[in-house]
Amino acid sequence: MTATATNISDAELEAMSKDIVWGVSEIGKLINRSERQTYYLLERGLIPTAKKIGSQWVASRRALLRFMLEGIAG
User: Fold this and answer.
1) Which of 6, 11, 38, 45 could form a disulfide with 28 if both were Cys (CB 3.0 to 4.6 A apart)?
2) Which of these, 54, 71, 74, 63, lies nearest to 30 by C-alpha position?
3) In angstroms, what CA-CA distances link 57 with 28, 41, 44, 65?
4) What are phi and psi of 48, to 5 degrees?
């Protein structure tokens, strides 16, 4: 088992990478919105769990689902 400079194991890195959702289309599928609706929400900062890296949007699957569930419950 190797570890990174932050002492994260390879298994933890693999699990974290599976949690990452890349792109407007994939984020939209997860939150049940069209690509256009998702882009609108992202560009206006209405999905605070997502970040833009270069020209691509990226988010944690877990954080997105939690955000959506809190929105439904709240």
Assistant:
1) 38
2) 63
3) 11, 12, 13, 16
4) -65, -15
The amino acid occupying position 48 is: P
- The full 3-state SS of 54-71, as one line of letters, equals CCEEEEEHHHHHHHHHHH
Residue type, 26: E
Q: What is the pLDDT of residues 20-71, one digit of tens each?
A: 999 999 999 999 999 999 999 999 999 988 999 999 999 999 999 888 888 7
Q: Of 58, 74, 72, whose CA–CA distance to 19 is shortest?
A: 58
The per-residue pLDDT for 17 is 72
Count of all residues that appear for the chain in the document: 74
